[in-house]
Amino acid sequence: FFPPQVLLLACAEDLECVPGFQQKVFYIEKPFQFTEDRLVLNLKFDDCQGNNKLNFEVSNPDFRVELDGNLVALKNVSEVGRALFVHARSEHAEDMAEIFILEANEKRGALKEILKLEGNLGIPRQKRAILATPILIPENQRPPFPRLVGKVIRSEGTEGVKFRLSGKGVDQDPKGIFRINEMNGDVSVTRTLDREAIANYELEVEVVDMNGKTIDGPVRLDISVIDQNDNRPMFKEGPYVGHVMEGSATGTTVMRMAAFDADDASTDNALLRYNILKQTPTKPSPNMFYIDPEKGDIVTVVSPALLDRETMESPKYELVIEAKDMGGMDVGLTGTATATILIDDKNDHAPEFTKKEFQATVKEGVTGVIVNLTVGDRDDPATGAWRAVYSIINGNPGQSFEIHTNPQTNEGMLSVVKPLDYEISAFHTLLIKVENEDPLIPDIAYGPSSTATVQITVEDVNEGPVFHPNPMTVTKQENIPIGSVVLTVNATDPDTLQHQTIRYSVYKDPAGWLEINPTNGTVGTTAVLDRESPFVQNNVYTALFLAIDSGNPPATGTGTLHITLEDVNDNVPSLYPTLAKVCDDAKDLRVVVLGASDKDLHPNTDPFKFELSKQSGPEKLWRINRLNNTHAQVILLQNLKKANYNIPISVTDSGKPPLTNNTELRLQVCTCKKSKMDCSATDALHISLTLILLSLLSLFCKSF
């Protein structure tokens, strides 16, 4: 067994003392095994002030670094992973070195992949004038700057030529990070690098003459930033809240915690391990939960009996979770978050009445809540495992009672929904059952305490008399004689055990047509019943009566009487319109269409008969023609002079016996010029056939 070959990739050497590891990254070939106490490699650390109180820590506990920097195995080790990390700390400085372990058959390929050189390893595939070896630079280097990090070589010499460097980090943003010595090809970094901001730089280097003309190149120069553990793990997805059902089996997964580390995910710098730092509260066990150190899954570790929500100090647990990088080693950086775990309730407690029997008293005839039934339930009040559902399972054949849940108190509100009658039953006994909205778990059942009895006492009250029937209906002709009997009302007292008397009175009689005998309830008329009255609606007249018992205080009942009035032909027909106008030179002598109406009902209305009274004088001036059952037309037989004329007309209905209305149509004959009618002077020329007849009659009488 030969010591592993050390592949040195860092090309830069500091001329001055720089505190820390003089070489920070190593690549070694993995042996068959690391042998106990056999040298692996030597790490050179110098804090530039004597290395006082120097101490080394290795990420793998199977290795150690001695004070002289020798890395050795503490025992024979076959598997160590892909990398080792060595942390050094003295009184004046601290630093980190990384050792990557490669399989023998993958050494060259792994380097190519890690450095992303793609064949540009400093060994040219063809003859080139410029050799640009990849450069590795640890992030977070301390001043002073600029710091020499590598060198570009020209095989044909550098006399009379200059090196020129370009690309992102030189002449492109972020500008000025790297620069090259134009004369000898030394590459320097001017500031601290941050791998999490930019991990790789791809630059180009070329050789130009003194006039700036390119002679050789450009050739790619790769610069890789070596990660250091400079980022703490962070929990970004909070708040973290998990739920677990009470009584869950040991090992039940509650939730997963996931932290993020901005360092290189391929190194232990971002290899996280999880741990529970604190649990609140600590009862019934200080270790209620366990977190998988690699996955971050939080699981229960107590028995189902201890995971009992109703016996816990609090159903909410808060865990302080720590995430540590470097695979959980002491040198790792940490981040914390709080995980809140809620113990969810399941319906493992049946509701129970606080007592077996409840009492209630209610007056007859009254509805509403009469008693609140109280229950206890140890389940979570915010869930259906606590909310109660009540039902009446016996004693409610008439559906006079209902029970509902008060959502605030969970009490059962027992109500009377149909008025109770003391005379029928003075006592009621109900059997009430309570259940939960959610079903009970299989091994729990409702017991005797989930039912209760309610004893209800009905109190007697003085109830008002009741009319039979109500409403009362009767049919009468209108215009029956005053004093006629309409009907006799009948009211009885529900309080059969009190033997009370009843007296009657009129409560509402809109037209004032009725009276009632206070003793026997006979209703009679005090006025003529008129079907055409505005107090009659759809031929029905409505009045209200009271029946008053002799209780103390007296109780009153109200009865309604509907009188349907039959029509009698007691209204003469009316004529419309009563005024008409016509031009004295009109060609159309059809003066007006008359209509007739009657307040009575059929058959005491149309068809109507229209007639003209006898016309005086040698000539007839007008006539009337019937158009239909309700209308007729007045026609002039010749043009008349401008004047007012009263035309006597009679209209007769079809009743038995028929009624006739003798009336007059006033006709104005006007002067019409240019579509304008002038009737202003007709009053002075007024001629009334009626007055002419009266004058002739007067002269005739005087002659005798």
TrEMBL record:
Output the Gene3D superfamilies linked to this UniProt entry.
Cadherins (2.60.40.60)
Q: Name one GO biological process term.
A: homophilic cell adhesion via plasma membrane adhesion molecules
* Occurrences of domain Cadherin (ranges): 161-235, 236-353, 354-467, 468-575, 574-685
Q: Keywords for this entry?
A: Calcium, Cell adhesion, Cell membrane, Cleavage on pair of basic residues, Cytoplasm, Glycoprotein, GPI-anchor, Lipoprotein, Membrane, Metal-binding, Repeat, Signal
The compartments listed are: Cell membrane; Cytoplasm
Its record classes its membrane topology as: Lipid-anchor; GPI-anchor
Q: Name one GO cellular component term.
A: adherens junction
Q: Name one GO molecular function term.
A: calcium ion binding
Extract the InterPro entries matched here. Cadherin (IPR039808), Cadherin-like_dom (IPR002126), Cadherin-like_sf (IPR015919), Cadherin_CS (IPR020894), Cadherin_pro_dom (IPR014868)
Q: How does it assemble?
A: By contrast to classical cadherins, homodimerization in trans is not mediated by cadherin EC1 domain strand-swapping, but instead through a homophilic adhesive interface which joins two elongated EC1-EC2 domains through a region near their Ca2+-binding sites to form a tetrahedral, X-like shape.
The UniProt function text for this chain reads: Cadherins are calcium-dependent cell adhesion proteins. They preferentially interact with themselves in a homophilic manner in connecting cells; cadherins may thus contribute to the sorting of heterogeneous cell types. May act as a negative regulator of neural cell growth.
Under PANTHER family, the record lists: CADHERIN-13 (PTHR24027:SF80), CADHERIN-23 (PTHR24027)
- What's this protein's name? Cadherin-13
